[in-house]
Amino acid sequence: MRVVGYVRISRDEDKESYTSIVAQKKIIEEQARKNGWEVICYYEDDNWSGYSFERPAFLEMLKKLEKDEIDVVIAKDLSRIGRHNALTLLFIEKLKSMNKRLILPNEAGGYDTQKEENDMLGLFSWFNEMYVKDISRKIRSSIKASQSIGKMLIKEHFGYKRSEDDKHALVVSEQEAAIVRNIFKLYLEGLGYRKIADYLNNDCCPTPSQFLKAKNRSSGRIYKAPISDKWTSSQVQRIIKNDIYIGTLRLAKTTKTCIKGKSKQNAESDQFVFKNNHQAVINKDDFDRAQLIAERRKKCSYRGSSNSINLFSGIIICGDCGSYMIAYTRNQVKSYICGRYHKHGSKHCSRHCISERELLMIVKEHIAYLCDSLNQKKFTIDMEKITQKKYNRVLLDDLKKEYQSCRQELDELLLQKAKLAISISDSTHCKELEESFLRLAEERAKHLSYLQSQLKAQNENISVNKDTKQSIADAFERILEGSNPKRSDIELLIDQIVISKDKCLEIKLNANIDSIT
User: Fold this and answer.
1) CA distance to 159, 187, 236, 511, per residue, from 201 (Å)
2) CB atoms within 10 A of CB 425
3) What's the whole-number mean pLDDT along residues 136-147?
4) 260-269, 375-384, 412-421, 462-471: which is most confident
5) In the CATH scheme, what architecture does the domain 3-136 have?
6) Is 251 in contact with 272 (CB distance < 8 Å)?
7) Architecture of the domain spanning 152-286
């Protein structure tokens, strides 16, 4: 008789009073001895909820049952098999159909599928499900109560860390925050999510999960979640969209309709929003501009992924049909053509286009006229002034500490490798050891290279010693005097450019500039 034992515990369900794995195995061993059997193996799910039947050991046991490699399954009671009423009863019926035996010694004086039916089994299974649902309701209620008063029960966001004085408070992690600021800077300059991800990967910039793994390692914890070694466009998009970086804490953003179900997004009215909750990484004006740009790009399908930035994509609109005009290059001349005509032909709109060079000249003339009419008056957008010097100093100190730590780790790895190589004579083990050390050393050396580049960049930033202060006048000046203006300046000043087939142009400024002019 091929007999196996199944044991399971869940920290959420059983709290501190749970029957331990060891105690469950003793009950199973005793039941097997009564029948003159020997348990050949155990299937063990530690810290898995009984409401889910996607448990690794349980699924492995089920495969063995289907392959006819097991005759009898013994578990302490019905709740160990599962706490989902329907799925638990279906599993028992499946065992019976396969002519397999299930024994539950602690279930209502003992239950055995080979003996007479227990009419109360369905009631016991229902009670087990009600128990876990009741616990789930209490946990959700407790979390909601904490969230309503601003207690943070979520994981750390990239760019922040928990305060050592208050685990519910966020403080800026300067090395990560510098990457966040750079992502916003690149996005405002016209790059798209994919292009920014490529830029970060080419710069060997660590990903959020790599930073989290390093944090866990430094505190002596093991990080078990998957590690992404490359930046992706979705990671960049999440950062651009997240208002955590302007000091806003959002709690209860998602909810689950059932236990172990998929999360769904809550309406903003159902979320708990705390503005000015913590130190901002990005000033609000830059964040708002990024959201406007994202919305504009979404409408016109602009991705910012070409080798050269299209200055007016998503800004210039056909005055005849209302579609966005798209960029195209012919004979090395970049121009903008009606998107509807380009896609559907002359039945939908006429073929009218304008070169980027010609359009830029018109925009410069318009800005020059504005400057003259304002008598060179200096005017600025009200923005939160960020002293980059302060951030750079903190970041530089953090980078130096991490560089020294990483350097010591690499030296220690090489020393350990030398010691173990001497003590191990087996060539197979030596080869495995060599491969392991090479992998670890390569990872540390790559991170050292990144830290060196960041240290150099921060030293240069501090030597410049300038405060970042954005002004409309500065943007005007850059466009008028520069031969290659930035897209960020165009987007700062201009909301829309409408052009009709007779090349009649209407330039619409952003609202805050219109109010000044």
Assistant:
1) 18, 16, 12, 37
2) 8
3) 63
4) 260-269
5) 3-Layer(aba) Sandwich (3.40)
6) yes
7) Alpha-Beta Complex (3.90)
